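Customer escalation, tier 2.

The customer says the design service returned an amino acid string that "doesn't look like it belongs to this structure." They asked us to rerun it and document both sides in this ticket. The original structure tokens are below, unchanged.
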């Protein structure tokens, strides 16, 4: 039995167009197979994705396939985690791919022994547009408070995670919801204590045409509201006051993202929920304003939402103008 250093978990569902690119980007790297295990979780995909995956089995003894009925992304990731044996895990989406030398880079980083590593995702659109952001060069690691205040939190793919951090703290993806990354991320960062920054660009994050923003459903709004409440509940359960404040601000941002400005205007059901939550948004904004240790920028954002939740939605949409999966 191998003592794997890194487990890469790849849920598969309707990705026959992308899965070969994803697997090639992993298996074509010059890394000892005994250091990496690849776990593909077939989430009941109805297309030809698994025929493509199966063609890799004979060539790669470190590839494991798990088949299950369709249960959604969260369950697929949890199932993969339960099977993983590596010291660290990396949740990779099947329509994304890793850069050359990325695995060597990650293996060198994890020698440092941090519980959590974070990288900037290279966002790439199918029309060729690329968005590449970088971490400040002189910063190699940050506290959990610094990270949740100033660094990207959503999109679990950015994190390489010590498996024991997830297992020991019972961190699993919430079943049956969209935006499950935003639900788990604040807890993940909290328990990690310190986060090591990976400055190299190692992950290409595909922005597909059928993204969340372009195929928004009422469920997106409902699940963002649920995730926001989960975040507030976690705030109330922890003793670290500074992180509690940061988590509250994060939950407030999630609350605002439940109502994209253009969806309020074009989707009657979203508009109806927004009207019902209008004064709730204002009340949460007021709490942010009155909370000690919130920054001027955070109070300013909350102030806008207190005056006009609709304006806050519009401005937040401008800030996060790129689409998401």
């Amino acid at each position: 039995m191998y003592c794997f250093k890194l487990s890469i978990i790849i849920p598969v569902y309707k990705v026959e167009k992308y899965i070969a690119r994803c697997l090639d980007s992993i298996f074509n790297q010059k890394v000892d197979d005994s250091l990496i295990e690849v776990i593909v979780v077939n989430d009941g995909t109805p297309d030809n994705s698994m025929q493509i995956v199966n063609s890799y089995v004979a060539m790669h003894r470190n590839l494991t396939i798990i088949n299950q009925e369709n249960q959604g992304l969260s369950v697929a990731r949890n199932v993969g985690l339960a099977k993983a044996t590596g010291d660290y895990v990396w949740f990779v989406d099947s329509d994304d791919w890793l850069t050359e030398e990325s695995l060597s880079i990650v293996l060198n980083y994890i020698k440092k022994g941090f519980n959590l590593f974070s990288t900037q995702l290279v966002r790439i659109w199918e029309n060729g547009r690329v968005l590449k952001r970088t971490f400040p060069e002189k910063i190699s690691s940050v506290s959990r408070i610094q990270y949740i205040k100033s660094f990207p939190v959503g999109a679990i793919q950015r994190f390489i995670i010590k498996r024991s951090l997830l297992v020991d703290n019972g961190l699993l993806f919430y079943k049956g919801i969209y935006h499950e990354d935003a639900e788990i991320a604040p807890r993940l960062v909290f328990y990690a204590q310190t986060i090591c920054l990976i400055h190299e660009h190692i992950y290409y994050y595909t922005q597909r045409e059928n993204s969340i923003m372009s195929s928004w459903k009422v469920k997106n709004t409902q699940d963002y509201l649920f995730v926001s409440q989960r975040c507030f509940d976690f705030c109330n359960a922890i003793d670290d006051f500074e992180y509690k404040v940061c988590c509250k601000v994060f939950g407030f941002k999630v609350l605002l993202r439940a109502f994209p400005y253009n969806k309020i205007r074009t989707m009657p059901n979203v508009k109806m929920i927004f009207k019902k939550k209008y004064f709730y948004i204002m009340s949460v904004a007021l709490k942010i304003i009155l909370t000690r240790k919130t920054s001027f920028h955070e109070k300013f954002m909350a102030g806008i939402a207190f005056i006009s939740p609709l304006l806050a939605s519009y401005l937040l949409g401008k800030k996060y103008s790129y689409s998401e999966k």
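Tier 2 assessment: The sequence is consistent with the input. Residues 40 and 168 are 23 Å apart (CA to CA). The longest strand covers residues 36-43. Sent an explanation to the customer and offered a walkthrough call.
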